[in-house]
């Protein structure tokens, strides 16, 4: 008996192998694309955790700087035109662009500048120790809440209590990590 012949078999010549290899290549490309998306999501998650730690460290330092303002005596504030010393800065000179936003100047936050003060946080060894400055912004701001108008309704009427205004700037940064900067205005009676 003669073996049964499969019609068209002699014409195939490995077409099935080529189709399977193409499908395998497509599936490999899909797997690689999926992995790169997963790696990107992991990096984004790590960056978010790092930023949150830096923010928490900056907020803790901000509270410490506010406590320092409450106990700050006027003689500890440098004279106008002097440099910042150990985190305390004088009133910025009018017309001096470099002093209006001194925290943005090149080299201001460098290790050897001496302008800033540092607060040791207990959050994590990986987080940078935040640095801060306290700037006197105004020495005598009338407190509207303590004004009594009597019959005079002007803003200056009987406003005898004044307060100082300080700008607190905190920067938490470390090489290759998240940089967080916080600023607030603090009133001290």
Order of helices and strands: HEHEEEE
How many strand elements? 5
Number of domains: 1
How does the major sheet shape up? Answer: 5 strands, mixed
**Into which percentage range does the β-strand content fall?**
15-25%
Low-confidence stretches: none
Q: Please give the radius of gyration in angstroms.
A: 33 Å
- Structural class by sheet pairing and helices: alpha+beta
Count the DSSP helices.
Answer: 2
Mean pLDDT score: 81
Overall geometry:
rod-shaped
Helix content: 25-40%
Distance between the termini: 114 Å
Description:
- With 189 residues, this protein is of the alpha+beta class.
- The protein has one domain.
- Helices cover 32% and strands 19% of the residues.
- It is built from two helices and five strands; from the N terminus they run αβαββββ.
- Strands 1, 2, 3, 4 and 5 form a five-stranded mixed sheet that branches.
- The longest helix has 56 residues.
- It starts with 14 loop residues before the first helix and ends with a strand.
Note the main attributes of this structure.
5-stranded mixed sheet; alpha+beta; 2 helices; 189 residues
Topology of helices and strands:
Elements: H1 15-70, E1 88-89, H2 97-100, E2 117-118, E3 131-142, E4 162-172, E5 180-188
Parallel strand pairs: 1-3
Antiparallel strand pairs: 2-3, 3-4, 4-5
Brief description of this entry?
This protein is α+β, with helices and mostly antiparallel strands. The chain has one domain (13-188).
């Amino acid at each position: 008996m003669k073996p049964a012949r499969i019609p068209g078999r002699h014409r195939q010549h490995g077409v099935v192998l080529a189709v399977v290899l193409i499908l395998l290549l497509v599936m490999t490309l899909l797997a690689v694309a999926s992995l790169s998306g997963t790696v990107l999501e992991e990096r984004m998650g790590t960056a978010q955790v790092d930023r949150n730690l830096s923010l928490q460290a900056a907020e803790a330092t901000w509270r410490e700087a506010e406590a320092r303002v409450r106990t700050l005596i006027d003689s500890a504030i440098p004279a106008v035109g002097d440099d910042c010393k150990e985190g305390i800065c004088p009133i910025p000179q009018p017309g001096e662009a470099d002093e209006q936003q001194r925290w943005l100047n090149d080299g201001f936050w460098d290790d050897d500048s001496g302008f800033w003060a540092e607060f040791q946080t207990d959050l994590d060894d990986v987080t940078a120790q935040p640095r801060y400055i306290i700037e006197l912004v105004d020495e005598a701001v009338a407190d509207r809440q303590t004004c009594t108008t009597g019959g005079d309704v002007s803003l200056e009427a009987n406003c005898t209590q004044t307060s100082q205004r300080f700008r607190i700037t905190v920067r938490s940064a470390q090489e290759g990590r998240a940089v967080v900067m916080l600023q607030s205005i603090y009133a001290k009676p």
